[in-house]
From TrEMBL:
SUPFAM superfamilies: NAD(P)-binding Rossmann-fold domains. This is Ornithine cyclodeaminase family protein. It comes from Leisingera daeponensis. It holds the Pfam family OCD_Mu_crystall. PANTHER family: KETIMINE REDUCTASE MU-CRYSTALLIN (PTHR13812:SF19).
Length: 321
């Protein structure tokens, strides 16, 4: 088997490669060529951690495996480590033998940012100029950096429960040469694209704080009980997701569905838009919402491409296992 340690990943993967891998795997899922296994995600009762497994099989790409890991909210403050910790394991679908173990931390951030970027590419208005960020933690910086490549954005606005973290967004905006402004939530009405990526368990963004024509990518809600937006927003919007089963159970749509405001059948796969089987955005005043729950196949896709490059470059550690 091959081992690709976390510290080697940054030199082996690009935002473009992550975007391509994620866009392809979303398309394969909608075509029925790839499927995710049910997610296991548990509050383990230690360090407030959420730990679990996300796995799947891509029959077309012959990628089988899982990502094990989760979210340790005290890591940064207590230990100087990032709060997300994960590792990807790939298996040979012909034999079941383990093929690779790959550091999953940077890959998680890149594949999650790629997912919202794919949604912006396919669902946001072409003339989108203002991007709004809700959340300013570790993932938010990756989200913003990737999103800024999707449209000719002229301004970044940001809100965070903990305003002292907003300079994280300012830094990414500065890097891209785009002005940044901290706003109240009402200020999000100015945004053509909004990304939410927080650890919230309550609705932050109200339906009335989103303007017609906006595209929203809700990326933080990946567990039962978590929530970032008003369920009424899902009534107003056309709702898309990576995986419908996850969207209605652990994603942002879980609340609107549980309250009987929308049906599971109101949630469409983004892969169908990519494949041309769903028109996606059809008007300039339509609100589109992408419920990015995070699927195991995203992790496997980016990890498989990293292993390929690591083997080519002679960086992968080979272990007789
Ligand atoms: P982080 O700890 O670095 O940042 C957390 C962010 O959430 C900060 O902006 C913080 O101010 C905000 N926050 C914390 N508690 C809040 C609350 N009660 N209400 C509102 N905001 C609150 O975490 P991160 O690594 O940036 O991850 C953010 C979230 O993204 C996590 O909840 C994580 O589970 C989720 N996530 C989702 C996916 C996916 O594929 N959908 C992938 C990775 C991470």
């Amino acid at each position: 088997m091959y081992i690709v340690p976390e510290k080697a990943i940054a030199d082996l993967v690009t935002r473009e490669a992550s975007f391509d891998a994620v866009e392809k795997v979303f398309a394969a899922m909608a075509a029925g060529d790839a499927y995710n296994f049910p997610v296991v995600r548990e509050a383990i009762g230690h360090e407030d951690a959420l730990y679990g497994f996300k796995g799947g099989f891509d029959c077309a790409g012959l990628t089988l495996g899982l990502k094990a890991g989760g979210y340790w909210p005290n890591n940064l403050e207590k230990r100087g480590l990032i709060n997300h910790q994960s590792t990807v394991f790939l298996f040979d679908p012909d034999t079941g033998k383990v093929k690779a173990m790959v550091g999953g931390n940077l890959l998680t951030a890149l594949r999650t940012a790629a997912a919202s970027s794919v949604s912006i590419k396919h669902l946001a208005r072409q003339d989108a100029k203002v991007i709004g960020m809700i959340g300013a933690g570790h993932q938010a910086t990756f989200q913003l950096r990737a999103a800024l490549e999707q449209r000719s954005f002229e301004k970044v606005i940001g809100w965070n429960l903990h305003p002292e973290m907003l300079p994280n967004l300012q830094e990414v905006a500065d890097e891209a040469g785009v002005p940044f402004e901290a706003v109240e939530l009402d200020g999000m009405r100015e945004a053509d694209v909004i990304i939410s990526i927080t650890s919230s368990f309550d609705a932050i963004l109200k339906a009335g704080q989103v303007s017609p024509g906006a595209h929203i990518a809700c990326m933080g809600t990946d567990t039962k009980g978590k929530q970032e937006v008003d369920p009424q927003l899902l009534v107003k919007a056309d709702v898309f997701t990576d995986e419908v089963a996850q969207s209605v159970s652990i994603g942002e749509a879980q609340h609107a569905v549980a309250q009987g405001l929308i049906e599971e059948s109101d949630v469409a796969q983004i892969g169908a838009v990519i494949n041309g089987n769903n028109p996606g955005r059809t008007s300039d005043d339509q609100i589109t919402l992408f419920d990015g729950t995070g699927v195991g196949l995203q992790d496997l896709a980016v990890a498989a491409s990293v292993v390929e490059v690591a083997v080519e470059k002679g960086i992968a550690i080979e272990v007789d296992f």
